[in-house]
Amino acid sequence: xxxxxxxxxxxxxxxxxxxxxxxxxxxxxxxxxxxxxxxxxxxxxxxxxxxxxxxxxxxxxxxxxxxxxxxxxxxxxxxxxxxxxxxxxxxxxxxxxxxxxxxxxxxxxxxxxxxxxxxxxxxxxxxxxxxxxxxxxxxxxxxxxxxxxxxxxxxxxxxxxxxxxxxxxxxxxxxxxxxxxxxxxxxxxxxxxxxxxxxxxxxxxxxxxxxxxxxxxxxxxxxxxxxxxxxxxxxxxxxxxxxxxxxxxxxxxxxxxxxxxxxxxxxxxxxxxxxxxxxxxxxxxxxxxxxxxxxxxxxxxxxxxxxxxxxxxxxxxxxxxxxxxxxxxxxxxxxxxxxxxxxxxxxxxxxxxxxxxxxxxxxxxxxxxxxxxxxxxxxxxxxxxxxxxxxxxxxxxxxxxxxxxxxxxxxxxxxxxxxxx
Length: 421
Ligand SMILES: *Cc1c(COP(=O)(O)O)cnc(C)c1O
Prior knowledge:
The chain is of the alpha/beta class and 421 residues long. The chain is 44% helix and 13% strand. It has helices spanning 12-15, 17-32, 45-51, 73-90, 102-113, 139-143, 160-170, 188-198, 210-215, 251-262, 268-281, 284-306, 332-341, 369-373, 378-392, 398-414, and strands at residues 34-35, 62-63, 66-67, 94-96, 119-123, 145-149, 174-177, 201-205, 227-231, 242-246, 310-311, 320-324, 344-345, 347-349, 363-367. Pyridoxal-5'-phosphate (PLP) binds at residues 39, 101-103, 106, 130, 132, 178-180, 205, 207-208, 231, 242.
């Protein structure tokens, strides 16, 4: 076939069967497994439609009404709508909806107010922080002087007095509030008080909890943070992507940091899909969704505790929980792998003061955002706790795992996913 005869209209199945089959395989996996990875969710079909749209063909460097290219009359309207909705949803002065990912959103907030060599105070990774909060192999760890706070050894919750002490001693330019594996509510007002005392900027990274904030089941950090960064694909249930909110006085600097500072053209399918995601998150059904996510997390957590599991900090206030597997005599790595064999997807996670290495760990992290989207409720959380207990209490029993796998297949089938695909 000559280049000029190439069929631009041919469907994927006739162009690349190999990739098409793997996407089908992934759809099958999502339908037949139970998704307990706390950072994952199932986005609505409408959002996926936008992600697969012609918007991918367009360049739109710059911001609405100040675009560098022609032909932006539709896409700049889309971006304006996304910005307005983000501001309305979270009560922000300003929003930038272009960041490609949560890590880039953090980079944008940091670059707006910090210079290389400045001090960053953020949560320790092994206590629940994120790579972009100062891991030595991340840009944040190599550009800044990183000081970390953690949780209290007894309560396993953030010790705000200790955060204040570290802030006074290290005089950071930025304090980060937010985590990837912290099962409790965050006290944003207290973080702001600490930041104000030493003249630091507060960057709240709500990547994990944005959906709970939108639904009103977690305090909203917007009013008391200088910057709020977030992903859109976790509890917010939108496309893979991110955004940054800030006080009006930082608007111009933040926008210049995102473009041309660290990104080129925005991913317009993602920008449009974020707009739809924000709109969906303002609807009453989403409030109900957020309430159910938390209800399910607390049901799963209590059911696991009744079955003898120790939960980090003794419970959960949000969508996630951390299980300490030491009482079962197994590691997080083994736990993740045997649950996977039984059709339950989760991830190994360090627990505070973990004696194991980060690639092994003593814990597992479970979240309920995805199972709640599928329509599961407290009754299914009890069934899941039974399944998890059966697998983790008999790590050598492959027959048991096969039996649990059959139960999980049945449970999955009772809560169909993407039936129209
Ligand atoms: C997931 C997460 C991010 C990063 O998101 P990516 O889109 O994977 O870059 C940043 N911060 C926190 C706290 C997160 O949980």
